[in-house]
């Protein structure tokens, strides 16, 4: 059935069909404005509801502003509320119309009904029109002295609004002093709390340019003020109690008696039903006793019970927040919570984020006395229907084993997981078995006997496959079919998409070759050839390195790739102790939930790119985008990274396919006798370099192309830049948004440059000496970001814009270049990299 024509459709009862209906509303409101007939307030209510309804759905009803103001002359508080809502919505955008509201709002501020006085004062302060500031001072002064606490509460908040509209007017009217007097003497707790909140904000903003404000701000932390608030804390609501407790955290007690007095005053706050109050109280206790070790430990014992109660009595969101803080405490003092491990067992109806956090806590509190019970519980979770939780539980079992608690039983449990025949269980277990073998090599016999029965075809996850390959290479002498499993994996090199797996294949093949050369030489040859032809730079470089070090000396290669096993004593922690202490200092904040200090998610350099660079850091990696990536072509000198000058001349050449670089091809001939000869020979002498190189390639079934070297083309002259280039930030911003990225390159920064990069200015001055100028910079160690520009000396209109991100911990830099003349982008990048490489050099 076709929909009715537009002319036949019925209008929505809550939406006007056109301007005529707004006009009708206007005329009806005007008729009722001066009427005093019985029932007129009910009629006004109906019209006011229509106006508010239209305003809510985004229809402009500002044309009835005057009529709404005229109709507000009534004692009906419902009409007053709707009128104030309407006025507050349109006053800021229509300053001229706001003048119409001043008289009736000031009149209502003197009404006999305190509710109307408060509503009118709130609406008056919410106009936020700078031209009307003079009309706020009088009503606010009267409101602060009002007999009704509700009006005083509204007035205090109004003073803060006035400060944000006109700070000078607020200070000149001496409102902060009035608020301080109210804070210390008012009988209503809500008024006192509002005064404290307003004064903290006002004095914090004024402290930057007023010594008096600094002194007043410090006076809030004086002993009389703190004790005044703490003695009255039971009168305040939860929000105000948290405000007072945050203030108490900043107080510096004079002696230990002062500390105990405060804790006695707040003792009952630990039993509060509100989690925010309990956490704020816990923070006060912890901060006060940091310098008293014995008392600090007793505080942990005291706060444990209230926090555990809140975990089990609140919503999942509250439980997660409390658990996050408990987790922080557990990491700092695990022995205190060791006997309460059952509180952290997972419940079937808990969300996965709560379960995951509980698993982390079980791992942290495991010790000799409770390991068996905890591991038994964790093993039950391995069969959980939630795959993510099952994975986390297996990892938790492994982490406990790495802590050297009940290793024998845990290894048996892990090996039993391999019999569950679930892909994700097998994958996680293999990763953990690898870590266990790195720390406990004595368990290799038991583990390898089980792992050897796992088919590599059933392992699809890269980390698990890498772990299995590592064991095949590390324990090749104990696994009879290790060379043949590796050979099968290497023959399917092209089907392996993970670079991590390919890297492990190269290393495992090398290790297996040193233990069982005859069975592995063919597989190693295939792996080296495929690795050197790999498009991934790390795989290519590792294969080339192995190729050259084998060519140099097999014994040296064995000492490099397969040295004697040494047990790993400690695995690196994911967070430094400094970061953990910083999070502890920010207890009862989002830092604990995110498990990172606040600067990591609030500072601009940690949060994201510069504001004028929209696309930086925000380029999505999608299948469509990845399809446009051009495979990297290896240049002729890539293969010669470890060659001497003579070898480079001998081996330089082009392949028959026209590629600039061709990996050695391989065949399947039997060359065990030649391998034996190679194994006992030393490093090749220069006189026999070419012949020994060919013999080496024959041993592994590799064949190098011997085509003549191509004629060398002269390198183009370096780009000359204008030393006096100039570009204003606005033009830079516009060009950066308009121009496409010409090229993106990674490069290394020399150690001297990293040492000199203590502040961004040092690099800025260095690059300016190379006619490359900085327009914006930011960040702090280890991440620095710079935006540079340069101009061609011969063509000042030809600009080069560059983003340079430097990580000082890895000594790496990434540069992105945008250019008006894209054909010269590579030349400019060369100049830029040359200048960067000289940074810090004498």
Automatic annotation (TrEMBL):
SMART domains: B2-adapt-app_C
Bias (Polar residues): 9-25, 653-668
One Gene Ontology cellular component: endomembrane system
Single GO molecular function: clathrin binding
Keywords tagged on the record: Membrane, Protein transport, Transport
Beta-adaptin appendage C-terminal subdomain domain span: 719-837
Amino acid composition bias (Basic and acidic residues), ranges on this chain: 642-652
Keyword Kinase: no
Localisation: Endomembrane system
Region (Disordered): 1-25, 642-668
Signal peptide range: none
UniProt KW Transport keyword: yes
Highest taxon of the lineage: Eukaryota
GO biological process, one term: vesicle-mediated transport
Entry function: Subunit of clathrin-associated adaptor protein complex that plays a role in protein sorting in the late-Golgi/trans-Golgi network (TGN) and/or endosomes. The AP complexes mediate both the recruitment of clathrin to membranes and the recognition of sorting signals within the cytosolic tails of transmembrane cargo molecules.
Family, similarity comment: Belongs to the adaptor complexes large subunit family.
Subunit structure comment from the entry: Adaptor protein complexes are heterotetramers composed of two large adaptins (beta-type subunit and alpha-type or delta-type or epsilon-type or gamma-type subunit), a medium adaptin (mu-type subunit) and a small adaptin (sigma-type subunit).
Protein name: Beta-adaptin-like protein
Species assigned in the record: Brassica oleracea var. oleracea
């Amino acid at each position: 059935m076709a929909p009715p024509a537009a002319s036949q459709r019925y209008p929505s009862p809550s939406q006007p069909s056109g301007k005529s209906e707004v006009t009708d509303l206007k005329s009806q409101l005007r008729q009722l404005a001066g009427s005093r007939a019985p029932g007129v307030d009910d009629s006004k209510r109906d019209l006011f509801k229509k106006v508010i309804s239209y305003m809510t759905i985004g229809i402009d009803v500002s044309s009835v502003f005057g009529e709404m103001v005229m109709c507000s002359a009534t004692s009906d508080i419902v009409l007053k509320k709707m009128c104030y809502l309407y006025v507050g919505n349109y006053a800021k955008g229509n300053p001229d119309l706001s003048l119409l509201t001043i008289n009736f709002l000031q009149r209502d501020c003197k009404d006999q009904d305190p509710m109307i006085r408060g509503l009118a004062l709130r609406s008056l302060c919410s106009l936020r029109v700078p031209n009307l500031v003079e009309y706020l001072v009088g009503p606010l002064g009267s409101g602060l002295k009002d007999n009704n606490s509700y009006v005083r509460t509204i007035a205090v908040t109004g003073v803060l609004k006035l400060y944000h509209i006109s700070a000078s007017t607020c200070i000149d009217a001496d409102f902060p002093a009035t608020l301080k007097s109210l804070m210390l003497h008012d009988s209503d707790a809500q008024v006192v709390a509002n005064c404290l909140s307003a004064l903290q904000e006002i004095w914090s903003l004024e402290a930057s340019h007023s010594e008096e404000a600094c002194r007043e701000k410090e006076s809030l932390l004086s002993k009389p003020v703190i004790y005044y608030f703490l003695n009255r804390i039971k009168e305040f609501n939860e929000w105000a109690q948290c405000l007072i407790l945050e203030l108490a955290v900043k107080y510096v007690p004079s002696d230990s008696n002062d500390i105990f007095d405060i804790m006695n005053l707040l003792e009952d706050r630990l039993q509060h039903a509100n989690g925010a109050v309990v956490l704020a109280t816990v923070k006060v206790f912890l901060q006060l006793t940091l310098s008293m070790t014995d008392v600090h430990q007793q505080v942990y014992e005291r706060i444990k019970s209230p926090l555990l109660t809140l975990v089990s009595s609140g919503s999942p969101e509250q439980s997660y927040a409390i658990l996050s803080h408990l987790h922080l405490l557990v990491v700092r003092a695990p022995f205190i919570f060791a006997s309460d491990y059952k509180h952290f067992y997972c419940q079937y109806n808990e969300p996965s984020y709560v379960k995951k956090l509980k698993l982390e806590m079980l791992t942290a509190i495991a010790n000799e006395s409770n390991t068996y019970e905890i591991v038994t519980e964790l093993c039950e979770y391995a069969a959980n229907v939630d795959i993510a939780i099952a994975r986390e539980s297996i990892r938790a079992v492994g982490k406990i084993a790495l802590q050297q608690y009940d290793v024998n039983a845990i290894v048996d449990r892990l090996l039993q997981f391999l019999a569950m025949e679930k892909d994700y269980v097998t994958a996680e277990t293999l990763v953990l078995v690898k870590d266990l073998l790195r720390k406990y090599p004595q368990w290799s016999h038991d583990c390898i006997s089980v792992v050897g029965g796992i088919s590599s075809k059933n392992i699809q996850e890269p980390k698990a496959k890498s772990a299995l390959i590592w064991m095949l290479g590390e324990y090749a002498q104990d696994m009879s079919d290790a060379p043949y499993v590796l050979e099968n994996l290497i023959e399917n090199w092209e089907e392996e998409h993970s670079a991590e797996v390919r890297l492990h294949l190269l290393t495992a093949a090398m290790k297996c070759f040193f233990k069982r050369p005859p069975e592995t030489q063919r597989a190693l040859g295939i792996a080296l050839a495929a690795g050197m032809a790999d498009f991934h730079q790390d795989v290519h470089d590792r294969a080339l390195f192995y190729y050259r070090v084998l060519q140099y000396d097999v014994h040296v290669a064995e000492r490099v790739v397969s040295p004697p096993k040494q047990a790993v004593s400690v695995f690196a922690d994911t967070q430094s102790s400094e970061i953990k202490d910083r999070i502890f200092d920010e207890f009862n904040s989002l830092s604990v939930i995110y498990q990172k200090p606040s600067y990591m998610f609030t500072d601009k350099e940690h949060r994201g790119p510069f504001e004028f660079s929209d696309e930086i850091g925000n380029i999505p990696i999608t299948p469509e985008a990845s399809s446009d990536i051009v495979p990297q072509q290896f240049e002729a000198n890539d293969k010669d990274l470890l060659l001497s000058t003579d070898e480079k001349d001998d081996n330089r050449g082009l392949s028959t396919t026209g590629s600039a670089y061709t990996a050695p091809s391989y065949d399947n001939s039997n060359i065990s006798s030649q391998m034996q000869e190679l194994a006992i020979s030393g490093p090749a002498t220069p006189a026999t370099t070419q012949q020994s190189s060919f013999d080496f390639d024959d041993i592994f079934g590799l064949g190098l192309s011997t085509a003549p070297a191509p004629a060398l083309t002269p390198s183009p002259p370096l780009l000359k830049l204008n030393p006096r280039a100039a570009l204003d930030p606005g033009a830079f911003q516009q060009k950066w948004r308009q121009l496409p990225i010409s090229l993106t390159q990674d490069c290394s920064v020399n150690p001297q440059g990293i040492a000199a990069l203590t502040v961004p200015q040092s690099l800025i001055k260095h690059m300016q000496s190379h006619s490359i100028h900085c327009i914006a910079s930011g960040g702090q160690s280890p991440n620095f970001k710079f935006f540079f520009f340069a101009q061609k000396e011969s063509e000042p209109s030809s600009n080069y814009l560059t983003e340079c991100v430097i990580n000082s911990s890895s000594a790496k830099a990434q540069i992105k270049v945008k250019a008006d003349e894209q054909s010269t982008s590579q030349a400019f990048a060369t100049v830029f990299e040359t200048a960067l490489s000289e940074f810090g050099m004498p």
